[in-house]
Amino acid sequence: MPNSSRKTTFTTISIDKETAALVEKICKRYSLKKSEVVKLAFGYIEKAHINPSEAPESVKSELAKINKRQDDIIRFIRHYEEEQLNPMIRATNSIALRFDTIGKTLEALILSQLETSQERQTAVLKKLSEQFCNHTDVINNQSKQINALYQIHQRDYKKLLHLIQLYSELSACGVMDSKKER
């Protein structure tokens, strides 16, 4: 009675003893079942587009084919490099050099403008400092004059107080009254 849950239908293939020994050897080496070895081998032949009826002549001829393919790939890469990559690299390098030149020019321009601006600011600050120094000198001179006037005022005030005191003493003695009567 066939198993209805199985979807794969198996068939049989007849192979000679030498091929059977080779399949057994591969099964043992890779721990696979015979059906898996056959399935994988046919999958490989299909993917690699190998015609099993055209056996390779020799390892040298197969290596020569591989080398020819490698040479074709290398020629393609070199051609692509010469035709596409090198011009792009040169254009990119040219653009980078232009950007670098423009960047340096802008840097020099900005630095010169900053220097000019700084010189102007320094000149303005120097003038302001001179004016403040002049104002400071004027204020200091006026302060000295005010102090001198204050000292003179204090001296005159002391003299006046001394005169008032003297006058009051003279008045108390009656010296000043006699002059008024006469």
Architecture overview:
The structure is a single chain. With 182 residues, the protein is mainly α. Helices cover 82% and strands 0% of the residues. It has 4 helices and no strands. The longest helix is centred in the middle third of the chain and has 115 residues, at 59-173. The radius of gyration is 59 Å and the shape is rod-shaped. The mean pLDDT is 87.
Layout: helices, strands, pairs:
Blueprint: H1 17-30, H2 34-47, H3 59-173, H4 175-181
Number of DSSP helices?
4
How far apart the termini lie comes to 175 Å
How would a textbook summarize the main sheet? none
Percent range for β-strand residues: under 5%
Regions with little confidence, pLDDT below 50 for 5+ residues: none
Mean pLDDT: 87
Radius of gyration over C-alpha positions, nearest whole angstrom: 59 Å
Order of helices and strands: HHHH
Structural class category: mainly alpha
Range of helix content = over 70%
Shape: rod-shaped
How many DSSP E strands? Answer: 0
What can be said about this structure in brief?
The protein is mainly α and 182 residues long. The protein starts with 16 loop residues before the first helix and ends with a helix.
